[in-house]
Amino acid sequence: METRSAKRRKLRNPNHSSENNTGEDRITDLPDAILHHILFLLPIKLVVQTSILSKRWRTLWHTLPDLDFTSIVPSGTRVKKIGSLNNLGNGSVITRILSLRDKLSDVRSLRFDACMSFSGLQALIRSAVRLGVQELDIRVETSDIFNFPRSLITHDCLRVLKVKACPSFRLPPSRIVRSGFQTLQTLSLSDVYLDKQSSLRDMFSDCSFPQLKKLHLKHCDDLIHLRVGCLVLEELVLKKCSSLQGLEIFSPRLVTLKVSSCFDGFSVTDTWVDINTPRLHTLVWVDNPITSNNCLQNLVCLHEATIGFVLTNLYVDAKKFQSGSPSFLSGLSHAVSLTLEHKFVQIISKNNSLVAILFNPFVKLNSLELQTSEVTDLASVLMVCPMIHTLIIKITYSHKREKRWGRLLLDLLNSRTEQYWDTKAKDLEPLLHHLKVVKIQGFSEDHIKLVEFLLQHGKVLQDLILGLEINNSSDCHRHEKLKSRIMGLSRSSLDTKLAFH
Known about the structure:
Elements: H1 4-12, H2 32-40, H3 44-49, H4 55-60, E1 66-68, H5 91-99, E2 109-115, H6 118-130, E3 135-141, E4 146-147, E5 160-170, H7 174-177, E6 186-193, E7 199-204, E8 214-218, E9 225-228, E10 235-239, E11 246-249, E12 256-260, E13 272-276, E14 282-289, E15 293-297, E16 304-310, H8 314-330, E17 337-340, H9 342-348, H10 352-359, E18 367-372, H11 379-382, E19 390-395, H12 400-405, H13 407-423, H14 429-432, E20 437-443, H15 448-457, E21 463-468, H16 473-487, E22 497-500
Parallel strand pairs: 1-2, 2-3, 3-5, 4-5, 5-6, 6-8, 7-9, 8-10, 9-11, 10-12, 11-13, 12-14, 13-15, 14-16, 16-17, 17-18, 18-19, 19-20, 20-21, 21-22
């Protein structure tokens, strides 16, 4: 049997015929960097199994710069047999694997999801720091709340840090944080126990995080006040910080801001927002209670904004809405594209004077997305947005509605809807002279009067795209009839194109 070395000698011989190269092992002869890239694409369990291929492969995976143990065991799964392939996700096994690596074989990224003790976690992180880890993604389950590992704070190679803990972990004091994290660019913290640090007004500053570009905070239930002032920060995500009462953001390079399910809607004290971010491009503000005092300034580069509020107390929220929402939306006056979620549309549609106040500042708006269950709620909003070119309507529709109301009652409602839109033709005339693209998702025969109105009065309408809901074969048959009916409607513009999805 021909050995591999003999085959290599034949390859080096220029007179060797190509027909004898059928057993050539080209993969093993590839440089380590290429083999590392190939192994990175495989689950870690398969990577370990490659060690039986040959002498070179036996230790090759020990030098793999990117280690991902999250594919081994599902989150929260406890393991018993240490050392087997099925237990590579166990903390002690990961620590043992790291200890086998040479100091010259650095770890570029390490991801793991494991159940372990705090001492085991500390040992694992010390091993990762010793190997110069640059990206660390920790998802860990412990028996109790643990302290943030101090060895990470002063680690001068760390670029990306993501920590998610169950039940939670404690942040170190701000004075300790300021002594480290000088090279960190991405920070994601989830399930943080703040204890006596409910006010983080000086932690996320340029002194503590001079190179931080991305900051994600999730499930910080004890957080009451937050101030973010990192000068190079580009992305900030806050999610499920339900006790938040005050938020200050002063990051001149911030491009993306997403805040969802935050703020204390039952707080007896005022809640407030103060945002000054001149480079902000995208704002997502959804599932938050209405805050009492809002100051949004210098959002001159804002392009996309998505707004939606949660109602906790109708009486209190009505008062907050009258005072807080105009000041909030006025700060978004430079937005080019605006999306309003269902509940927000439902509130403002009941008060025409308030709608005019809310939308008066939007001088650049040319794209508007509205989410609603009743299309008649939209008219009051559309009247004060006369310059938009693109309108997207997402309708939440229940198929049980037709069965419950009956065909006769639906016909009566459609008749009233037709009369409703006819009465709005004059008020919506400025809009109909600018509107070019309309997309309606969740369209049904209940909304055909709206489509008829748009086709008859849309002077420059170019595209009308209707998204039909199909759940069964009977829907297909009914929708085919609906399509034929719509295609037969008269159009104000001969350039209007109809499309169905």
